Amino acid sequence: MAPTARELARQTVLADILAAARMRLTDEGPVALSLRAVARDVGMVSSAVYRYFPSRDDLLTALLIADYDELGAAVEDADAAAGPVPGARWVAACRAIRSWSVAHPGDFALLFGSPVPGYAAPRETVVPAARTALALARVVADAVASASGADGRPGSPSAPTAAPGAAGPAVADAVTTLRSFGIELPDEVLVRTLMAWSTVFGTISFELFGHFVSSVSDGDAYFDQVIARLADDLGFAAAF
Amino acid sequence: MAPTARELARQTVLADILAAARMRLTDEGPVALSLRAVARDVGMVSSAVYRYFPSRDDLLTALLIADYDELGAAVEDADAAAGPVPGARWVAACRAIRSWSVAHPGDFALLFGSPVPGYAAPRETVVPAARTALALARVVADAVASASGADGRPGSPSAPTAAPGAAGPAVADAVTTLRSFGIELPDEVLVRTLMAWSTVFGTISFELFGHFVSSVSDGDAYFDQVIARLADDLGFAAAF
DNA sequence: GTCTATACCCCGATAGAC
DNA sequence: GTCTATCGGGGTATAGAC
Questions:
Q1: Which residues, in sequence order, are CB contacts of A26 under 8 Å at separation 6+?
Q2: Chain A partners within 8 Å of B117 (Cβ)
Q3: What share of chain B is helix, strand, coil (3-state, %, to 5)?
Q4: What is the mean pLDDT of chain B?
Q5: Measured between beta carbons, which residues in chain B are less than 8 angstroms from residue A125?
Q6: Residue B151 above 90 pLDDT?
Q7: Min Cα–Cα distance to chain B from A140, Å
Q8: Please, which pLDDT band fits residue A168 given cuts at 50, 70 and 90?
């Protein structure tokens, strides 16, 4: 309901700019991202880009949202394509996270690396940001539900020595957040899920940022070992 | 055996420069670090700094080594001060890592955040870099050795479903590296130690970089829960 | 909407006087 | 060893012609 041609052209240019920005991001990292550089890449002059993005920070925000959404969608798709077996869904989801990260190291650095100094992510980013973690939590919830008593081990892993404060108020926010998305997890599983998410991220981060140079030679194989043990700690069996 | 006065003055200025650089690092991050800025901070002109550091990258390298060493020393000291009980040493070492990181977020970002584009860490950094991980591995080795059969659980945690490749060749480099420092770990414990190190780092990283905003409210308490469970997974009990 | 031109900052690094 | 001055590059952002 409006001048469609002009609007469509605008959308096209906007997509071009975003694509060029992601190119720069992917192989040079967030700090190397500048409006001038992407302007050069798309054959525009820098001031023209300002008609599409009021500032460099707005471009960063758009990239942040696009990346969070792309990663989240990749995980959700992998999960959906993995069939009904929770252990297989877990493997598919975790592998999807790593695959995307390895394919887009600059974007990974934007999402999970050091924050860009002087830039604070606005509120619009928090929902896309939660998407991946929620997808993981959903898989865990289903796995734990269906694993209860299915094999010899209890659905909720025992925590004989994990003392201070049980699940405690430290993670109360997580309970609230998950509940608002219709996900309920036993306390112990909740903490284990947070840990697993941190471990998956930490492992990929170590691999991409070069901290495995003299210890892990095969990132692929090692990652599979890690997620197998994480599933184990969560009370179900990973299925490869 | 040389002109001491002049040399001493030089050392003093050098220390001043490094201190100023660490200041900038701590509250602005690695990318904001420039020779000109630190020159202003110490009241010098930029060209004068080049008499002490041939390039910005050399300054970065010096900071990298200083930070790795400071973190490593903090962990080693905490370990040594914790007494003989392995579970207590583990808690002390892990807490020391987090304390240092929280106190120096910019330095943490330099060591473990996104790599600075265009800068590649030289070989001199790898030994200091390994110091912290080695300290952790030593604690684990001692804990596992003394925990064997001490309580009901075996010293080496069982891995019922952790299939692909046992410990596998993926971590063969880690075996070699540890052995060169006189540390031997059972395969399963080795993988678990690598995982624990990734989890500790990932947890601190999430906390510092703002990924726990709607899930973890008390970083201190949550971290203690995490390291308790990690010890459990490694086959011994954390002692708080 | 897109261009040129510009104001005003930053940076790394070097030359040469003192 | 420290200074001034400078080269040559980068950047954000805006004004105003077309």
A1: A104, A105, A106, A107
A2: 28-29, 31-32
A3: 70, 0, 30
A4: 90
A5: none
A6: no
A7: 16
A8: confident
